[in-house]
Amino acid sequence: MEEQSFLEKLDQHKGIITKVIHLYADDAEDRKDLRQEIIYQSWKSYGAFRGDAKFSTWLYKISLNVSLTFISKKRKKPGWSEPGQELFSTHPPELSERADRLYRAIRKLNDIDRGIIILHLDGYDNEEISEMTGISKNNTGVKLHRIKQQLTELLNQRKDGLAK
User: Fold this and answer.
1) Which tens digits make up the pLDDT trace of 108-138?
2) Structural domain includes residue 164
3) What is the CATH number of the domain that holds 44?
4) Are 152 and 117 in contact (CB under 8 A)?
5) In a domain? residue 69
6) Residues 6+ apart with CB under 8 A from 123
7) pTM, to two decimals
8) Can you tell me the distance from the alpha carbon of 26 to that of 90, in angstroms, rounded to the nearest whole number?
9) What are the angstrom distances between the C-alpha of 159 and each of 4, 90, 107, 114, 156?
10) Whose CA is closest to 68, among 11, 147, 135, 126?
11) Which of 137, 16, 38 is CA-nearest to residue 30?
């Protein structure tokens, strides 16, 4: 019964996992590995889920933590290139042109900032983001302000590097 409940909740919130995976992994094999690890760690931790937070909040926290660990491990391997440093061609197909530009700009942010802004864009308030990331509420607000400024600068750049 617990397994069925987990699978139903996971199915309802699978978009969270997909979104986080596309922010932290460039190639199909890494996305597959990261998805499996997120699901595994979520299932492993599900018994401790008390329902104090929404399932989506809990799943985001696990997804972000697993992704950050994944990136950290990948960085230690020789020949690994930083995701999001170049424009990538694999993204969710339903993105409009404007959303695609934003998504590409978000991919250029550092690992923590990517997670913070995606949580903000999904409607989480500073307190919830603070709980999920372990960053103080005030620092979350400051970081969000700086991230928005950085995204504005990135979105105002043309391909040739000159401002519009």
Assistant:
1) 999 899 999 999 998 899 999 998 888 999 9
2) no
3) 1.20.140
4) no
5) yes
6) none
7) 0.72
8) 7
9) 48, 18, 16, 21, 10
10) 135
11) 38
